[in-house]
Amino acid sequence: MNFDDIKSAWNKESEQPIEIPKDIQSLKKAQMPLDKFRKNMRGEAIFQILALLMSAFIPGFFKLIPALKIPFNSAYILFVITTLYFLIRFYKFYKKIGASSLNTKDSLYELNYDLKLNMELYKMFNFILLPVFLIFGAIILVNDNYAYFLKVITNEPGYFYIAFGLTTLTIYTMVHFFAIIWLNQYYGKYAKEIESLISELKEEQ
């Protein structure tokens, strides 16, 4: 084979499109929902920090009476500890999925596991904070009608506890319902996209 034949064969091979493996394409597709997931995490962290800072001004803004400052401070300390703990956990996860290089199937499987785990942590975080916000709301409500609530608790404790229990149950049910919707819209749909890519990879095996 002379030089012209070699050159002709080389040109024919060059014209053929390079076939990219489907698993590499799936890994690249996974980066898009992952970026949106991380963007939402940043927004969530900013919201939590603002909520933490703004809650500190509740006593001064609503002019809490001295009798309510101790329960408020206790609830606020719990709020700070819980929020800081979960913010640290979420920040570590945020850094991990940012530094992770999706170049293997195993890394995609690990990412999917981490997403599910942290979504469960997010649910737990919201349910832990719910009693804190209920206490904040109750303190503000009682502060405006302290004499009335004191009279009801003293004279009609049964009525008060029934009303309190039903109100708490209703709020918990509503928060649980809306928390699931929020989680699915804010994080869940992106996690499902990654899960569907994993299903595609399994089918190709």
What does this structure look like?
There is one protein chain. With 205 residues, the chain is mainly alpha-helical. The chain has one domain. It has seven helices and no strands. The protein has helices spanning 3-15, 22-55, 58-62, 66-99, 105-144, 146-155, 157-204. Helix 2 runs antiparallel to helix 7 (157-204) and helix 5 runs antiparallel to helix 7 (157-204). The longest helix is centred in the last third of the chain and has 48 residues, at 157-204. It is elongated, with a radius of gyration of 27 Å.
State the gist of this model.
With 205 residues, the protein is an all-alpha fold.
Q: Could you outline the blueprint of secondary structure elements for this entry?
A:
Elements: H1 3-15, H2 22-55, H3 58-62, H4 66-99, H5 105-144, H6 146-155, H7 157-204
Helix pairs in contact: 2-4, 2-7, 4-5, 5-6, 5-7, 6-7
Mean pLDDT: 79
Any low-confidence stretches, pLDDT <50, length ≥5? 13-21
The beta-strand count equals 0
SS content category: mainly alpha
Total tally of structural domains: 1
Portion in beta strands = under 5%
How would you sum up the global shape?
A: elongated
Largest sheet composition: none
Q: Count of helices?
A: 7
Give the topology string: H per helix, E per strand. Answer: HHHHHHH
Radius of gyration: 27 Å
> Helical amount among residues, as a percent range?
over 70%
Distance between the termini: 41 Å
Keywords: Membrane, Transmembrane, Transmembrane helix
Transmembrane segments: 45-62, 74-91, 124-142, 162-183
